[in-house]
Design brief:
Blueprint (H helix, E strand, L loop, with lengths): L6 E4 L2 E6 L13 H9 L4 E4 L25 H16 L3 H12 L4 H14 L11 H4 L8 H12 L8 E2 L16 H4 L2 H13 L6 H4 L4 H22 L24 E2 L4 E2 L12 E3 L4 E3 L1 H17 L1 E3 L5 E3 L5 H10 L7 H4 L2 H10 L25 H18 L7 H4 L4 E10 L6 E12 L13 E9 L2 E9 L5 E11 L10 H4 L4 E10 L2 E8 L6 E2 L1 H4 L11 H8 L5 E2 L12 E11 H4 L13 H4 L27 H4 L4 E15 L7
Parallel strand pairs: 2-3, 4-13, 12-21, 18-19
Antiparallel strand pairs: 1-2, 5-6, 7-8, 9-10, 11-14, 12-13, 14-17, 15-16, 15-20, 20-21
Helix pairs in contact: 2-4, 10-12, 10-15, 11-14, 12-15, 14-15
The structure holds CU2-O2 cluster (CUO).
The site of CU2-O2 cluster (CUO) has 8 residues, from helix 8 and helix 14.
């Protein structure tokens, strides 16, 4: 069994639920009280679960307990939406607990975990409940399948206290014969995949309207994924590969192969691989209630292109919806993804989601081999596969096509009169100025919660990930206006040259810029020095939140726990800076101070999850920046601007920096658990 049945273990404290017999799944009913007793032997706390009248589960139970679950499959989304509604509809936490306990052993575990997580995130009365990290619940979606046999062996033979971490080799999914494998450290990074899963948990595309209709969610779908592609292409250039080519020829084979080497502990099956040169085909899978032709993708994309060039969409009742300069991208994001906020799902279809589905069923489009979907079918695993980036490059291209129709920013929409960025310097401790340093680091994760074995206790896996030396920006800004001014400091980074070693045209480089940070500054008259640490980035969550909280036995204060609860969305700090090259990757650091009057959103951003707003927004708040996401790089440049230098107004500046990769590995301090 992949999850513990009735236990919550936190540190030394073990809690057991006292469950009404009726709530036990049929196969456990005869065991009744003895079951609770067996697991409750060494519990310090017993929580009684109240008997309430349980709403009908109907279709929710049709998904087998040992099936895989995908939000991209329409039937799965529908039942997930239904279960979320049940959880959200419970009058109070006690009732929620009752229905969750009832569902726990009946509903597919992935579906259960997803729906309960969404509900806990969105209910007012569950804001202080600990949501375990997804990797603790389902480690099998993140690490090499070989680990689990080793972990079991370790747990059975070695007593807790003497166990050593099981090391996952850095290169386990392919060899260097495959050049795409150079990017495996990025695609298979645990923190990146956790971020992506979390993002889709916070921004579901199908659920009750009040859950889906978050501020600018369609636009954020565009921007967050645009940034993933920019970051991936940046990494590719660091690894001497050209930018990823968009996947838009759907009748042609996909050259890239991917062998995930993941086993699903829930489904007791390996995740299917995709060999080289497979072609997507019409889907007819009764089991998933999917019948869809590849031609539909073509039809939907043609209609979306039509809307982009007409500047308006048509809703279900034939009314015209303008794609306005400010809100068009949000509408388009919902249309392309698609979410229930799409103006017309019948007509514009479900392009992006179904692309995931076609690719993830490439090996068994009609279910003749009784196979489930590949990694592209699950937001927790999709980013592992090279084809993810090809598909999302195509999706991003649609958005760029739209952005190219918008009015270009005039100089007065970019400049901040009186404000000049005079100097930028990046400082790494003990190193030369304007040089960033990257290297490998090893970290440990406790996998025991997602596995069921006796005797219990922590079992750590040790994996290797990219890391950089922390650094600070020192930015000198002159304020020659007639008073104090507020501004937004926007920091981006891009490679200085394209894959041929040529300088960029601005129109190409603008989509290569990755956001590093964004924050408000107040500028007194005269000269100001802004100092900002890389760890404060508005893009990332701290290293501790990605990894260290996964150590269940580490003593944690309530405060620390509350902080970890819901803030799993955020780019991992250890992946803030691309890998660079041993000889030093030439890059351009761009800093802009924009006029706060045009940026500001009137709201308090105090509270939880306010530190990774750039890609994730702020929980229950408006997106914390009034400008179009990606500003000032989200549109074609004004006339006469061909290069980045020509684009600059006095409130912007560019500094050459170099990213130097050192092929050494920093090992964690000695651990015995
Ligand atoms: Cu995040 Cu395609 O939207 O995976």
């Amino acid at each position: 069994r992949p999850q513990e049945p009735v236990f919550i273990a936190k540190g030394d404290k073990k809690t057991v639920f006292d469950i009404p017999n009726e709530y036990l799944a049929d196969k456990y009913k005869p065991l009744g009280v003895s079951l609770t007793n067996r697991f409750g032997e060494d519990a310090n706390e017993k929580i009684s679960v109240k008997k309430i009248s349980i709403p009908p589960f109907g279709e929710i139970l049709e998904l087998e307990r040992d099936a895989n679950f995908s939000l991209f499959i329409p039937k799965h989304r529908r039942i997930a939406g239904r279960l979320i509604d049940i959880f959200l509809g419970m009058r109070n936490v006690d009732d929620l607990l009752s229905v969750a306990v009832y569902a726990r052993d009946r509903v597919n575990p992935y579906l259960f975990n997803y729906a309960l997580s969404v509900a806990i995130l969105h209910r007012q009365d569950t804001q202080d409940i600990d949501l375990p990290s997804f990797i603790q619940s389902f480690p099998d979606k993140y690490v090499d399948a070989k680990v689990f046999a080793k972990a079991r062996e370790e747990a059975t033979i070695v007593p807790e206290g003497s166990r050593t971490p099981i090391e996952i080799p850095k290169d386990y999914t392919a060899s260097d014969l495959e050049e795409e494998h150079r990017l495996a450290y990025f695609r298979e990074d645990i923190g990146i995949n956790l971020h992506h899963w979390h993002w889709h948990l916070v921004y579901p595309f199908e659920a009750a309207r009040e859950v889906v209709a978050k501020n600018r969610r369609g636009e954020l779908f565009y921007y967050m994924h645009q940034q993933i592609i920019a970051r991936y292409n940046f990494e590719r250039l660091c690894n001497k590969l050209k930018r990823t080519t968009r996947y838009n020829e759907w009748t042609k084979p996909i050259q890239e192969a991917y062998f995930p080497k993941l086993d699903s502990l829930v489904a007791s099956r390996s995740w299917p691989a995709r060999v080289a040169n497979q072609t997507i085909r019409d889907l007819n899978r009764e089991v998933d209630q999917i019948k869809q032709d590849v031609d539909d993708l073509k039809r939907w994309s043609d209609r979306i292109f039509g809307a982009i060039h007409k500047g308006s969409a048509t809703d279900e009742r034939g009314r015209t919806i303008e794609l306005t300069e400010n809100e068009g991208i949000d509408i388009l994001g919902n249309m392309v993804e698609s979410s229930i906020l799409s103006p017309n799902r019948t007509f514009y279809g479900d392009l992006h989601n179904m692309g995931h589905v076609f690719i993830s069923y490439i090996h068994d489009p009609d279910h003749r081999h009784l196979e489930s979907f590949g990694v592209m079918g699950d937001s927790a695993t999709a980013m592992r596969d090279p084809v993810f980036y090809r598909w999302h490059s195509y999706i991003d291209d649609l958005f760029q096509e739209y952005k190219a129709t918008l009015p270009r920013y005039r100089e007065n929409q970019l400049n901040y009169p009186g404000i000049t960025v005079a100097k930028i310097e990046v400082q790494t401790q003990g190193g030369p100025a304007n040089t960033l340093n990257t290297f490998w680091q090893q970290s440990d994760v406790d996998m025991s919660r997602g596995m069921d074995f006796q005797p219990r206790g922590s079992v750590f896996v040790r994996f290797t990930h990219l890391q950089h030396q922390p650094f600070t920006y020192k930015i000198t800004v002159n304020n020659q206006s007639n008073g104090n001014r507020m501004g937004t400091c926007r920091i981006f980074l891009a490679p200085k040259f394209d894959e041929r070693g040529n300088p960029w045209l601005f129109r190409d480089q603008k989509i290569m810029f990755i956001e590093l940070d964004k924050f408000t500054v107040s500028l007194k008259q005269g000269q100001n020095t802004i100092t900002r640490a890389s760890t404060q980035s508005s893009v990332t969550i701290p290293f501790e939140r990605t990894f260290r909280n996964l150590d269940l036995n580490r003593p944690q204060g309530g405060e620390a726990l509350a902080q970890f609860n819901f803030c799993g969305c955020g780019w991992p700090q250890h992946m803030l800076i691309p890998k660079g090259t041993p000889e030093g990757m030439p890059c351009q650091l761009f800093v802009m101070i924009s006029n706060y009057d045009d940026d500001k959103v009137e709201q308090s951003t105090e509270g939880v999850c306010n530190d990774a707003g750039s890609y994730c927004g702020i929980k229950d708040k408006l997106y914390p920046d009034r400008r179009s996401m990606g500003y000032p790089f989200d549109r074609m440049p004004r006339d006469g601007v061909d290069t980045l230098q020509q684009f600059l107004t006095p409130n912007m500046r560019v500094q050459d920096v170099s990213i130097v990769f050192n092929n050494r590995t920093v090992r964690p301090r000695q651990r015995s658990s």
